[in-house]
Specification:
By secondary structure, the protein is of the alpha/beta class. The protein contains 13 helices and 14 strands.
Length: about 425
C-alpha cells in the first residue's frame, strides 16, 4: 500500500456508477481507511433502490442517503431559473448546480461521522472535480479531498470495467453501452461512447426521458404555468409543490420531444466536450419564465439582466456557487423578480415550445398604447422631438465631418508627419 498520508475516514460522493463503485475498494486498498458512501437523492428514481446494498457489497463501512429533491429545486435550480442562466446559450446547468448541493451535504455527513477527508469520482479532465473541490474549500477548508482519477493508474473506462470485474463489483456500464450519465430532477446528461465523435449523429436509442421529436404525437399539448415572484407555482390551474410540478412537466415535455440538446461545450479545464442533455421540464420552465419577464420587466432591467445571466451561468458552470459574486448577483436577480407573477400559456408540439398568451397583474404592456388603431393617450407628433434629440450626437458628428473635423465613418485617419506639416 502506497504511503499517501494518514486518513482515518473518508466520505465519498457515491452514485453507484462505475467510477464511484470501484473507488470504494480502491480507497480501502490504498489508504487503509474506512469509507462512508453518501448518496444524494436528486430525483434519480429507481436508480437509487439498489445503491445501499451495492455500496456495502463494494466494501463501504457506512451508507447515507438523503432526499434533497426539494432543496435542489428551491435552493439551486429555481435561483438559476430566475437568473435566466444558460451556459453558452444552450446548457441549462443541470449537473453544474447539483454539485454544490452534494458538496454541502457531503461536508455535513463528514462532520457527523468525524471524517477527515472527502472523495469524489470526477475525472481529471472534467468540470466536476472543480465544482466539488471549490465548494468543499468554501465550506470546509480543513477537510482533505481525495480524487482517485488523479492518482490511480486506471486511464480509461475499459480499464475501470476490468477493475470492477476483478473486484466482483456489478456495474451498469458495458463495452456496448459505455455512456457516462448524470440524472436528477432537472435533467439527464449523456457523455462518452459514440458521442465523443463530433461528426456522429445522436444514437436513436440514447434518450431516456424524452422521445425524439419525430416520434412525438401529431397533436399539440396545451398547458398553463403559474409563477409567483419568478418561482413556478402551478400547472394548469393546480397549485403544486416544486417536485411534483417538475415531475409532471418532465413527463409532458418528454412525451412531446422537448428539451433535448446535443452540443459541444467548452469545459472550464480548457477541453471541448460533446454530450447530449435531456431537460424536458426545465426547458419548458425556462421558456415560460422568459415569456413572463418580457411582459413585466422594463427594457433597461431586462437588457441588463441578460448580461447578468451570462456571468451567472459561467459562475455556476465553473463551480463558484459559494462565491461572493454569485451571491451578489442573486441579490440583483431577486430584486428583479418581485413583479414576475402571472400565467403563461404554451403549446408543445414535436420538440417545439410555442407561446400561446401571457397574463400578469404587473404587466407593463398596454394595448391602448401599442394599438395601431386610434388612441387618446399617445400623440404621435411627440416622436419628432424625441427622434431629433435621440439623434443629436449623430447630427453633430455629421456637421463636423462636413467641415473636415472628423474623418468619415470607416475611414482610417492618416497621421501627419513632418513632411506633411
Amino acid at each position: 500500500m502506497a504511503d499517501k498520508g494518514k486518513v482515518e475516514k473518508v466520505v465519498l460522493a457515491y452514485s453507484g456508477g462505475l467510477d464511484t463503485s470501484i473507488i470504494i475498494p480502491w480507497l480501502k486498498e490504498n489508504y487503509g481507511c474506512r469509507v462512508v458512501a453518501f448518496c444524494a437523492d436528486l430525483g434519480q428514481g429507481e436508480e437509487l433502490e439498489p445503491l445501499e446494498a451495492k455500496a456495502y457489497a463494494s466494501g463501504a463501512d457506512a451508507f447515507f442517503l438523503r432526499d434533497l429533491r426539494e432543496e435542489f429545486l428551491t435552493g439551486y435550480a429555481f435561483p438559476v431559473l430566475r437568473a435566466g442562466a444558460v451556459y453558452e446559450g444552450r446548457y441549462l446547468l443541470g449537473t453544474s448546480m447539483a454539485r454544490p448541493l452534494i458538496a454541502k451535504h457531503l461536508v455535513e455527513v463528514a462532520r457527523l461521522e468525524g471524517a477527515d477527508a472527502l472523495a469524489h469520482g470526477a475525472t481529471g479532465k472534467g468540470n466536476d472535480q472543480v465544482r466539488f473541490e471549490v465548494a468543499a474549500a468554501a465550506l470546509a477548508p480543513d477537510l482533505r479531498v481525495i480524487a482517485p482519477w488523479r492518482e490511480w493508474k486506471i486511464r480509461s473506462r475499459t480499464e475501470a470495467l476490468r477493475y470492477a470485474r476483478e473486484h466482483g463489483i456489478s456495474v451498469t456500464a458495458t463495452r456496448e453501452s459505455p455512456y457516462s450519465r448524470d440524472r436528477n430532477l432537472w435533467h439527464l446528461s449523456h457523455e462518452g461512447g459514440v458521442l465523443e465523435d463530433a461528426g456522429a449523429g445522436m444514437p436513436e436509442d440514447l434518450l431516456v426521458l424524452s422521445r425524439r421529436p419525430q416520434d412525438a404525437p401529431n397533436r399539440e399539448t396545451d398547458l398553463e404555468l403559474g409563477f409567483a415572484a419568478g418561482v413556478p407555482s402551478s400547472l394548469n390551474g393546480e397549485c403544486l409543490g416544486p417536485v411534483e410540478l417538475l415531475e409532471r412537466l418532465n413527463r409532458l415535455g418528454g412525451d412531446n420531444g422537448i428539451g433535448t440538446v446535443p452540443m459541444v461545450e467548452n469545459r472550464l479545464v480548457g477541453i471541448k466536450s460533446r454530450g447530449v442533455y435531456e431537460t424536458p421540464g426545465g426547458a419548458i420552465l425556462a421558456f415560460a419564465h422568459r415569456e413572463l419577464e418580457s411582459l413585466v420587466l422594463d427594457r433597461d432591467t431586462a437588457h441588463f439582466k441578460d448580461l447578468v445571466a451570462v456571468r451567472y451561468a459561467d459562475l455556476v458552470y465553473d463551480g463558484l456557487w459559494f462565491s461572493p459574486l454569485r451571491e451578489a448577483l442573486d441579490s440583483f436577480v431577486l430584486q428583479t423578480q418581485s413583479p414576475v407573477s402571472g400565467t403563461v400559456r404554451l403549446k408543445l408540439y414535436k420538440g417545439n415550445i410555442i407561446p400561446n398568451g401571457c397574463e400578469s397583474p404587473n404587466s407593463l404592456y398596454r394595448r391602448d398604447l401599442a394599438t395601431f388603431e386610434r388612441d387618446e393617450i399617445y400623440d404621435q407628433k411627440d416622436a419628432a422631438g424625441f427622434i431629433r434629440l435621440f439623434g443629436l450626437p449623430s447630427r453633430v458628428r455629421a456637421m463636423l465631418e462636413r467641415n473636415g473635423g472628423f474623418p468619415p465613418p470607416g475611414a482610417s485617419p492618416v497621421a501627419k508627419g513632418p513632411e506633411h506639416a
